[in-house]
Amino acid sequence: MYAIEVKDLVKSYGGITAVKGISFTVNEGEVFGLIGPNGAGKTTTLRILATLLQITSGSIKVFGHDLTTEADQVRKIISYLPEDAGAYKNLTGRDYLEFIAAFFGESAEQKHMVERGLSIARLDDRIDDKVETYSKGMARRLLVARALMIGPKVAILDELTSGLDVLNAQEVRRTVKATVKEGTTVLLSSHNMLEVELMCDRIALINDGRIIEMGSPTELKKKYDVPNVEEVFVRAVQ
To answer: Residues 64-75: pLDDT tens digits?
Structure first.
């Protein structure tokens, strides 16, 4: 069974078709990257997988659950971090994690989730300050902690390290990789080609709503005879 199985996915908004019949699979325990230029259909695809948008046609299964008919089951096993996610600014970081944990499990499980979230966020004594006082990077680390602390079977991460400096970005990547080792499958979208190369086992390049290339970073660099994924991206899109 695949962690994610997308077949002939189409998404239209009125007269505009944003996703034009894409198909791909993600293996359990894999970090799969969906990359492409702005407006290519990446975020639309992630929002569909997060059950926030309805499918126009095609099908998606997440660990065998049909996204259209079993959306409630899918929501129980996924976590979604949008690029533009925000936390409640009047709560402290700790209060925010406790608020999110309250939606999951019994009190003992909630306590464990919060402890896990605190260790992921690494905000130290700032965790008890209000979110409104956080830098963009601090807020992003809190949101990454929120997404991963529940131990999802699938984590959908849009622009994972958006707003983070190099050191914080490295720490977040290490955290995600550790989460994968614990059993989480990751679907990642990023404009940072170095991040894609460092993180992803396989990638799919999407352009104008269609997947135009797919494979491991190593395979694609060899195919295009280029030194990095950024050059693969440029060649494939052009």
So the answer is: 999 999 999 999
